[in-house]
Design brief:
The chain has about 625 residues and is mostly beta strands. It has no helices and 39 strands. Strands 25, 26, 27, 28, 29, 30, 31 and 32 form an 8-stranded antiparallel beta sheet that branches. A hairpin with a 2-residue loop joins strand 4 and strand 5. It is globular and about 70 Å long.
């Protein structure tokens, strides 16, 4: 969501310090081609609650665009943006021009050889552009956007009349069609609809400099509203269980694929696990649009990462389609969030899809055009779930057992934020380890903006017996912050124990929510679970799925879609939860197919039988 803010900026300054621990060596793989969600970027500390003493890092509403040979990631309230050449490694760019109170849910557009940037606003503000974003150079395309036609101001919204528009554009999206015409989409509300209108950016008037007077063309079009009475996933709350609160619709993003236009939107609210992306499809940039029966198209309500709404859809250099989204943390503040990246695409018949299955396990970034059905999932399984953990110290109520529970809202807290603090996970036996993700939590961090000491430094060690240790990775001189530090090992390690050795974090306290270890246990994958029943409830927006427990399973993926070969929706549930799930994300009048798979440390089972859910 974006009507809720976030910020920061920071210099990377190495803090030299030696750890009194064995072996040194293996550096982080700068050539690594895998990643795991949440994306490992140096999220910024929010300043909005600084006077209440609430401190946390956050990132939300990601807009990713390809410009030239690079990719650029813009998000809510970071005083700058990120640049990447491979979608895996991201470098923060400090711009020479930026709004005083930062960006919120920005819109991006590549047109006329330029990269345009427009932030959410309820007043008339500048439109920026750059031809050298890698070096942070920006100019004003216009000093002042034209006022929205027939829109009230922020101060007079309380007396808005029928036919008038609310202040805006908030949560804007920009799109240029093949004929060169440019359109703007906007809206973030649980009252007002989403709007669209053609806009003349005066692309041929560059000689006028920053004094160009842009203009809206034609009438503003009301594009869509939420219908939670028909679309179960548009209901508010955790797992869509709050039917009293009006849901929010926001985060407009437009793509053209073939002759179809895909207007994407986020709902029902960023504060919960069920934040998702939906899509309406039309034959013109301003519609009319038809609700896609396979909604929500981007959905991840279960697992370590929860939430996939309000992002962007773009193509990489090989023609692969990607979708970004916002996932929910919510430890310190409802709008404490991170960003995620998922493979996406379109079937030959035009159906859009986003693949969030195992979306918070390591994924491999392709160096080629993916073939239909080709997955980016590495197959590296979660080895740390509910494993025994020990630590050099702890604070009351936040013991080391909380780093293996796959919950970003619990954490281990060290008694002091000093070099040499350790956190050790016993994998229970020899395992092949490929990657480790260190997810930090903000516990009374007392940071509210960028500073030179906001860097994350640690080493990772492995052992077969808990006494003799070898270096797995050395980030003791890392020059940037890592709220979600993902480390792909130089080579697979055959170990039983993984140890985190602390060097430095910029927060006042050392807190880690989860130390996630990925790889393999020897042996065959689990058998397919027995799907006992799948029945539509009396309220057909819901269905109840029951399956039989698989001994030794770490968890299950409940999968559904329009056909058996398009089970694009996934609800991941760990094995300590019941083997009954009420799906509350269905749309009335739509026929679905459901199946279940199990996974453990050895791999993923085959699918269960499928059951059809009739409308």
């Amino acid at each position: 969501m974006s009507a809720r803010f976030h910020p920061r900026l920071r210099l990377a300054l190495a803090l030299a310090a030696a750890l009194a621990t064995p072996v040194a060596s293996a550096a982080v793989k700068s050539h690594a081609r895998t990643w795991a969600n949440p994306m490992d970027v140096d999220y910024r500390y929010n300043f909005e609650q600084m006077n209440q003493g609430i401190s946390y890092r956050t990132g939300a509403d990601p807009a990713v665009v390809r410009y030239g040979d690079g990719y650029y990631l813009f998000q809510t309230l970071a005083d700058g943006y990120w640049h990447s050449t491979d979608l895996v490694h991201w470098d923060f760019v400090t711009p020479d021009k930026w709004p005083f109170d930062s960006e919120v849910a920005p819109a991006t557009l590549v047109a006329d050889g330029k990269l345009f940037l427009l932030r959410s606003t309820t007043d008339q503000e500048p439109l920026l552009y750059s031809t050298d974003p890698a070096h942070g150079h920006w100019k004003f395309w216009t000093r002042l956007m034209p006022p929205l036609p027939n829109a009230v101001t922020s101060s007079t919204e309380y007396k808005i009349k029928p036919g008038q528009l609310p202040p805006g554009p908030w949560d804007p999206g920009l799109f240029q069609d093949n004929d060169g015409k440019v359109y703007m989409y906007w809206g973030s509300s649980n009252v007002y609809p989403m709007y669209g209108q053609q806009i003349d950016l005066k692309l041929g008037d560059g000689a006028q400099g920053e004094g160009k007077r842009l203009a809206y063309v034609g009438e503003t079009t009301t594009l869509l509203r939420l219908h939670p009475d028909q679309h179960g996933w548009e209901r508010f709350g955790r797992d869509h269980r709050d039917e009293k609160t009006l849901p929010f619709m926001e985060g407009a993003w437009m793509n053209r694929h073939g002759d179809r236009y895909y207007l994407q939107y986020a709902a029902p609210g960023t504060e919960y696990n069920a934040y998702a992306t939906g899509v309406y499809v039309g034959e013109h940039p301003l519609g009319p649009f038809t609700y896609a029966p396979y909604n929500p198209v981007g959905y991840k309500p279960g697992g370590f990462v929860e939430g996939a709404g309000h992002g962007s859809t773009f193509e990489d250099a090989y023609g692969n389609v990607w979708n970004t989204g916002t996932n929910w943390i919510g430890l310190n503040w409802n709008f404490e969030r991170r960003i995620d990246l998922y493979p996406a695409g379109f079937h030959d018949d035009g159906q859009m899809w986003v693949d969030t299955r195992f979306g918070d396990f390591p994924q491999r970034m392709p160096d080629h055009k993916l073939q239909p059905g080709e997955s980016t999932f590495t197959g590296w399984m979660l080895l740390s779930w509910h494993k025994h953990a020990t630590a050099s110290s702890q604070i009351p109520g936040h013991g080391p057992d909380q780093v293996t529970d796959e919950n970003p809202r619990t954490f281990w807290g060290a008694a002091s934020n000093t070099p040499g603090q350790t956190l050790t996970v016993d994998l229970g036996g020899p395992r092949t380890v490929n990657a480790i993700q260190v997810n930090y939590a903000d516990d009374r961090s007392d940071r509210y903006g960028d500073a030179p000491d906001l860097v994350t430094q640690f080493t990772l060690e492995g052992s077969t017996d808990g006494r003799h240790w070898q270096s797995l990775a050395d980030l003791s001189h890392e020059p940037r912050d890592h709220a979600n530090a993902y480390v792909e090992l130089d080579a697979p390690a055959r170990i039983r124990y993984v140890r985190y050795v602390h060097q430095h974090v910029g927060a006042r306290h050392l807190a880690i929510s989860d130390l996630r270890v990925f790889g393999h246990q020897d042996g065959p994958p689990p058998p397919a679970p027995e799907l006992l029943s799948a029945t539509r409830d009396q309220d057909t927006r819901n269905a109840t799925i029951r399956w039989k427990r698989v001994p030794g399973a770490v968890g299950y993926n409940v999968r559904w879609g329009l056909t058996a070969d398009r089970l694009h929706e996934t609800y991941q549930r760990f094995a300590d939860r019941p083997t009954t799930l009420q799906l509350r994300a269905l749309s009335k009048g739509v026929r679905y197919v459901v199946a279940v798979e199990a996974f453990d440390e050895r791999g993923v089972s085959k699918l269960s039988r499928t059951i059809t859910l009739e409308p």
